[in-house]
Amino acid sequence: SAAPTSPPRRDFISVTLSPEEVVGVGGYNNSKAWRRRFCWRKWKQLSRLQRSIILFLIAALAVCGVISCTSMGEPWKSLTNKSLDDRRTEAEIPGLKLANPAVLPAPQKADANLGDYAELSPQKPPKLPHVRRSPSSLQLKPPRRDVKLKTRHDTSRIVEKLVQAEKEVKTEKSVISWRGAVIEPDQSTEPPSSKIKEPEKPSSLEAEDQKEPVPINERQLAVIEAFRHAWKGYKEFAWGHDELKPLSKSYSEWFGLGLTLIDALDTMWILGLKEEFEEARKWIANDLVFDKNVDVNLFESTIRILGGLLSTYHLSGDSLFLEKAKDIGNRLMPAFKTPSKIPYSDVNIGRGTAHPPRWTSDSTVAEVTSIQLEFRELSRLTGDEKFQKAVDEVMKHVHTLSGKKDGLVPMFINTNSGQFTHLGVYTLGARADSYYEYLLKQWIQSGKKENELLEDYMRAIEGVKKHLLQRSQPKKLTFVGELAHGHFSAKMDHLVCFLPGTLALGAHNGLTADHMKLAEALVETCYQMYAQVATGLSPEIVHFNLHAQKGHKDVEIKPADRHNLLRPETVESLFYMYRFTGDKKYQDWGWEILQSFNKYTRVPTGGYTSINNVENPSSLEPRDKMESFFLGETLKYMFLLFSDDIDLINLDKFVFNTEAHPLPIWLPA
Ligand code: DMJ
Q: Is 414 close to ligand 1, i.e. is its CB under 6 Å away?
């Protein structure tokens, strides 16, 4: 206020300053004496009560000041300590600090909705009686900036560092095994939780290699030679591109993402091809870019690229591959933004947009139900639940859908309505095949607790037996045909030959023994699809004879189906059968097939080619294309089939995705 009167003596504070007292005649009077006098005069004018109140307020302010100074000091203190700690960690374990935090985000709290998944998946917070886990600050991977393929010797140096670090916190050591194939049962990794916890270590870092390596045999050497020959062509004429065209000595692009190179990474690791692996790794580090305006197929890029990167991360322990896996995983997520949450078939990974094929709003059933192993593993590794949530939702939805026939699913599903479409056609071949495979494999991946998956799998196999199983003439080969609107067709895709391997895997995991019997019968049929053909190579599709006719074999081939794309399914099943039975005939059958590939599909200047006519050895009509799965799957399964080392990708510790990329089985809670 500015009242010029003398202050009233009342019991409230009123400080009155006249302008003259503040600004003296002739301007602002700044002398100290004047100011002191002025203050003293004003103080005297106050009542005793007013003076006491002012003194009390000053005292109170002083006390508050002291208190707040003390508490503000704490954050400053901890901030300073933290940065000191950081510097110390870097100095003591050089490079180690960077590997994990740069790649793996801090674990996140689960969304409340994930509670819904408790029944579906074993998502209780894990008890870890035998997981040897160091504190998260020490869950460090070795630096991989200039990674080299590890020999046991190379490995041991990295391991020493880890062991040293872990010893300090009194935990037991982790050992990376050469080829990463060995994980002791009590060291395999644990399942995801609805509360997705801390990010996971790669399997290789938890492995303990205690055995002498099993020497590589002649047949395995032949596979290595075949791989090198294929790689030579790819390297020379298609390096960094999707597929080799070995005859025209050029390449073809599908997604423009170096598909063959990525698909082949873990094969090189398993085959022990150090140099090749290292140069491929360099390409991934320097040239693989996902920020591209390109449409990719969700399923194909998941099983080949995401799957390939994840398994290579597990085998090598190299965080580069996890980083890339995370990148592509995130870029694929827009596919799930549909009215039904059934994903679209295609995603533009640069723009972050997704769409169905131009002619329909349907997706393929096998495609939307065969991306789960990879996305679930990505969630487990990163601690980010969104990947698992998206794919689990698809499975839960498909589980409840009507339109199945005794567990057999139609081939299409609509992304708007979420309903099956084109009802009435049932096959275990193209567009449905890996739905069945992933039912079993997801159940195995998560520790055999997701009962809905198992139920769907068991029901489906009963459906196969009831509706699709027949025997051919004259050899009485058991085969899986198709059902179209009530009519049985004796047609079987080569793709169906994944089934014996899957059945055997189920039996190995405790399912009924007659699945194994069926597997034995079917794998023989698949072998006959090669053996009964002039080139010793199976066509893409066969028709079986249901009635004996003079001069006719069991297998008939239509002109449009005579091609062979170097597919893996039969060799894959032979591998499972040999692993579980030890019967050498499976190795011998695989050996015959390898020789046929070498005889009819090998291109002298490097690479192998698909052919159009398996029936005419003198007119093979090469298609001039080497599919990425020849290196990713076919040769890998060959090598594993010929191996007598059950720890070379131990099937109790790893589950193969549908592109032959091994992912760890999660440790039961
Ligand atoms: C691969 O991409 C996968 O095995 C897929 O499941 C089916 N087709 C090819 C191999 O034939």
A: no
**223 within a domain of the structure (yes/no):** yes
How far, in Å, CA of 533 to CA of 537, rounded?
6
* C-alpha torsion angle, residues 167, 172, 178, 180 (rounded to 10): -130
The residue whose C-alpha atom lies closest to atom 3 belonging to ligand 1 is 659
Asked, for residue 624, whether it belongs to a domain, the answer is yes
What span, in angstroms and rounded, lies between the C-alpha atoms of 469 and 48?
Answer: 107
Q: What is the pLDDT of residue 24?
A: 33
Q: Provide CB contacts within 8 A for 637, sequence distance 6+.
A: 568, 571, 572, 574, 575, 660
**pLDDT of amino acid 163:** 33
Residue 156 domain flag: no
Q: Supply the DSSP symbol for 304.
A: I
Give residue-wise pLDDT tens across range 404-455.
999 999 999 999 999 999 999 999 999 999 999 999 999 999 999 999 999 9
Q: Is 442 within 8 Å of 372 (Cβ atoms)?
A: yes
**What's the N-to-C CA distance of the chain in angstroms?**
74
Both tokens of residue 647?
A: 């720890």
Q: Is 658 annotated as a binding residue?
A: yes
> Over the stretch 363-401, which tens digit does the pLDDT of each residue have?
999 999 999 999 999 999 999 999 999 999 999 999 999
Domain count, the chain: 1
Three-state DSSP at 553 gives: coil
| pLDDT given for residue 495 in this prediction | 99
The yes-or-no verdict on residue 68 having pLDDT over 70 is no
Question: Is 38 within a domain?
Answer: no
Q: How big is the chain by its Cα radius of gyration, in Å?
A: 34
The domain of 402 spans 218-284+360-646
Residue 560: DSSP 8-state: G
Verify whether ligand 1 is closer than 6 Å to residue 50 (CB atom).
Answer: no
Instruction: Check if 434 has its Cβ closer than 6 Å to any atom of ligand 1.
Output: yes
SS3 32: helix
Mutation pick for ligand 1 pocket among 367, 441, 629, 630 (CB with most ligand atoms within 8 Å): 629
CATH of the domain at 514: 1.50.10.10
Half-sphere exposure of 186 (CA within 13 A, CB side): 8
183 against 528, higher pLDDT: 528
| Closest residue by Cα to residue 420 from 377, 378, 475, 363 | 363
